[in-house]
């Protein structure tokens, strides 16, 4: 990751203020990872904001959003699968994103529309996951 040009060491209530949320939206140093999957190309989606990993809610979580996650990870994104209901276990920290709405062509998840960083009406049982195709065996993906 690149070094932050802006200090993100503010307490959480501060970063959730509308003004700072806009600043976050414009930052491009968002990161994404897949956690707790049986292989590296699937798992619970977690995004990295404010130096904290957090989860994504499965509200409106579809193949379009899954495709963007896979693309962002540098994995094949065709036939990406959206998997909700905390199928890869529940995260224990922040729920960073909710109501994510991608067209499917975005390069990173933070470029999609969403409710705002940290704004959600979700429980960890709604954590979103994805399954991307495996580079080596692209036609054998099974849940
Ligand atoms: Ca929601």
What report would you give on this structure?
With 143 residues, this protein is α+β, with helices and mostly antiparallel strands. The protein has one domain (30-131): Roll (Mac-2 Binding Protein). Helices cover 16% and strands 20% of the residues. It has 3 helices and 6 strands. Strands 1, 2, 3, 4, 5 and 6 form a 6-stranded mixed beta sheet that branches. Residues 1-8 and 20-29 have low confidence and may be disordered. The structure holds calcium ion.
What's the short version?
This protein has 143 residues and is α+β, with helices and mostly antiparallel strands. 16% of the residues lie in helices and 20% in strands. The chain is built from three helices and six strands, in the order ααβββαβββ.
Labels describing this entry:
single chain; 143 residues; alpha+beta; Mac-2 Binding Protein; six-stranded mixed sheet; 3 helices; 6 strands; disordered N terminus; binds calcium ion
Helix/strand layout:
Layout: H1 12-15, H2 18-26, E1 31-35, E2 42-49, E3 52-56, H3 63-72, E4 81-83, E5 94-97, E6 129-131
Parallel strand pairs: 3-5
Antiparallel strand pairs: 1-2, 2-3, 2-6, 4-6
pLDDT < 50 runs, ≥5 residues: 1-8, 20-29
Strand content: 15-25%
CATH fold-level label? Mac-2 Binding Protein
Helix-and-strand structural type: alpha+beta
Q: Quick one: how many beta strands?
A: 6
Helix content: 10-25%
Oligomeric organization of the protein chains? single chain
Number of domains: 1
Quote the average pLDDT.
82
The sequence of SSEs as H and E is HHEEEHEEE
Through-space gap between termini: 31 Å
How is the biggest beta sheet arranged? 6 strands, mixed
Task: Give the overall silhouette.
Answer: globular
Which cofactor or ligand species appear? Answer: calcium ion
- CATH hierarchy class name: Alpha Beta
Rg (CA only): 15 Å
- Using the 3D structure, state the CATH architecture: Roll
Say which CATH homologous superfamily is assigned.
Answer: SRCR-like domain
The DSSP helix count reads 3
